[in-house]
Write the structure tokens for this entry.
Amino acid sequence: MSKAERIEILIHELSKGEFLSGEYLGQLMGISRAAVWKYVKALGEMGIEFESVPGKGYRVPGGIKLLDEKRISAYLSAHATGVLKDIFCFYEIGSTNQFLLELAETGKAQYNSVCVAESQTSGRGRRGKAWVSPFARNVYCSILWRFEKPLFELEGLSLVVALSILDVLEKNGYSGIKLKWPNDLLFKNKKLAGILLEVRGDLTDYCDVVIGFGINVSMPQKLGEEIEQEWVDLESILEASIDRNILIADILSTLSRDMENFEREGFSGFYEKWNEKDAYSSKEVLIMAGKNSFHGVSKGVNYQGALILEINGEEKSFHGGEVSLRGYGGTLD
Ligand code: BTN
């Protein structure tokens, strides 16, 4: 049995929340009682809080509600069930985006496949940053989608994804969440969720897009210190227990509907709602585009999803890609 398999057995057993003896776990994992302790300590390093009580054994208080592809599938809308294909679910993976990109490149993936993971060892953020991805705390999810459109027509897609996530969170009682162009979700100016789109394919006729999103659900304070900007998680916005399987299923359901609308009609059907939720509407902002920066007043997005900035009385539009926006006067991206 490999180390990874043993860890999986241990997580599965301890996720039930009851005390289990070292002897029992050792038997399941094919190792000695003493060696079980090393594995339990490894779980601690992954951010899983456990108790160790002499005579009783080990337990994860409250258990862990693990991700489960069957439960995600069960909560999908009828439309999403028809549209989505495989749901790959991992305890640990480098990056859910990378996993689907590799499948697409080797031609092994079915379009509209999904990948979710409990943790990512090389979670990717925008502009080469890492995405902090501790075990069983948050949502890390990617979808591989084929758009029968050239790349330039995909402008606005990441804004649509942000809106879909926002839609689901609002339906679940979270209010006050705003959007930051091109694709962040903020609460009180702190980052709640991020989206990373990675594109492959011919790009002139069609694009294979991996749409990845990460949502902070219950980020451990200590690991959150690794995040380079102010952040917030769902748990601290609203005291409610969150079933990540249902949350993911709701987002996939909304997203598959919204992506089809976007493919048919472009961004025009979304632009009004996006501007309503814009965190920087009419505010002074700084746009960083490579080595250049532009200071102006944000006028929201246009029908294509480009950001309009008023600079000395003139309007200039900015397109997604590697451009980033900063609030002027301290709030950094
Ligand atoms: C950002 O920097 O705001 C984008 C973050 C995107 C993170 C998600 S988590 C799931 C998917 N897999 C990754 O490696 N990144 C995205």
Summary: The mean pLDDT is 91. The first helix runs from residue 3 to 14.
